Amino acid sequence: MNGAARLTERIGGPVGAHARPWGLWFNPLPWSILVAGLSWVVLMLRQVPCQQHVYGTTVNTYARLCYSDIPLLYQGNGVATGAGLYSEAGLTHPPLVGALVAVCRWLTGLFGADVGASATGQEQLDASYLFFVLTAVVLFVSFLAVVVVQAELGAGSASWATQGVATRSFDALLVAAAPVVMASGLINWDMLAVALVGLGVLAWARCRPLVAGVALGAAFSTKFFPVLVLVALALVCRRGARMGAWRACLGGFAAAWALINAPLLLTDPHGWSLYWSSSIGRGADLGSLWYVFELMGLRVPGVNAVCLLLMAAALCAIALLVRRAPRRPRTAQVILLVLIAFAVCTKAYAPQCALWLLPFVVMARPRVFDWAVWNIAELVYFFAVWGFLDGVLGPGTGADALYWGATLLRIGVQLWLAAQVCHDVLNPWDDPVRVGHVDDLTGGVLDHAVDAVPPPVPQAPPVPPTPLPAAGHDGCPR
């Protein structure tokens, strides 16, 4: 008896043969939205201790575990006084994040805050909180989009084996109740990128590769990681002989990215390049294996080149896995493997980067145990990094090894999760999603597609023919 069956024993048992599995109780969407709202309320309440009320009186956001870049960006470099975001304030974020900052700053002024050169320090501080709340509303809508997308992607899981209930739609609750959201959802603007990637994956699942490319191109205009989703799609499309759909996705991706980036690139090339130059020019930073090595006194020379080489090797290994698997891997499985490879190899990994993985952890490996272990590891790192920045676990304190351990734990759990996914890929009969006639809920054109390259079947050595016994004159064996 599996875990789900044991759990249902306590709430009445599995669905009976004459049950009617529809109605509110069997619709995960309202429950998922409710849980998502409660999670966001917890997140907002966590931010209250970090609200600074008096200008000049700082709040230790590290010790209170509620640090956020959002209000600090508003108060710094002239953003609060109406300075140009890229030309004067030197914003180091991609254009779509800059557009969101500009809109929220405009709304801040519309709601009565003084957004101009005449604003005093206290007025800028008060306006920063309004700016933060407006941004939080946008990011909450983004989070709801992620949850709804998760429920929609599971709608195709209803089969004879599940008695008509779309069981995978209930996985949206694992996204809605994820502790990593309550911990890191408002550190930065990452939730916007996660929502756009989710919409792209949903469009791909609905066999609209061009629309999927547009959504992923917009997401790439907020963060770097969405381009990795495009790479993962190429790997599974190559196995499933659907490269035409991938090229359509690539066209939409390039068009959307160019359309969003062109205005800033043409009017302020230097401002546009700030995000890329700051990302490329930074050394090993918080959360990475390379930063732990530096803290140990083992500086890795040429960390950019090392990261690129390791990432290339990881992609080659994933491509080989996709090609050699006995059954074409599910799209979400390959996306998660590519994202984990990036998270392990990259030279910086902020706590909010866990949001990138969350939807695909649930899609690729919808097991509560795996989900819980991964969330716990991310939370351990969440607490450790703020203790490190606060100085409690800083270098020379004697407790800095705890930060090293938290970083290594996070990386180790990510590798363990990748190993679980690889097991499912190599043993598709163990895949928790492929039940009944379900193939690839996020595959779109790949769902139930015939492989272009059939998996290799090991050939047994030829068996020599057994010699027949000699026959006598009567034709009978001697």
Q: What's the layout of helices and strands?
A:
Blueprint: H1 3-9, H2 28-47, H3 69-75, H4 95-110, H5 121-153, H6 172-176, H7 179-184, H8 190-205, H9 209-220, H10 226-240, H11 243-267, H12 269-281, H13 289-295, H14 303-324, H15 331-345, H16 354-364, H17 368-390, H18 400-426
Kindly report the oligomeric state of this protein. Answer: single chain
Biggest sheet character:
none
| Helix percent band | 55-70%
Mean pLDDT: 89
Number of domains: 1
Spatial gap, N to C terminus: 57 Å
Instruction: Assign the structural class, choosing from mainly alpha, mainly beta, alpha/beta, alpha+beta, or little secondary structure.
Output: mainly alpha
Structural overview:
- The protein has helices at residues 3-9, 28-47, 69-75, 95-110, 121-153, 172-176, 179-184, 190-205, 209-220, 226-240, 243-267, 269-281, 289-295, 303-324, 331-345, 354-364, 368-390, 400-426.
- The chain is mainly α and 478 residues long.
- 43% of the residues are buried.
- It is globular.
- The chain contains 18 helices and no strands.
- Helix 5 (121-153) runs parallel beside helix 8 and helix 10 (226-240) crosses helix 15.
- It is 59% helix and 0% strand.
- It has one domain.
- The chain crosses the membrane at residues 29-45, 129-151, 172-205, 211-236, 248-266, 302-322, 334-359, 371-389.
- It comes from Propionibacterium acidifaciens F0233.
- This is PF09594 family protein.
- Residues 456-478 are annotated as: Disordered.
- Residues 456-468 have a biased composition (Pro residues).
Summary?
The chain is mostly helical.
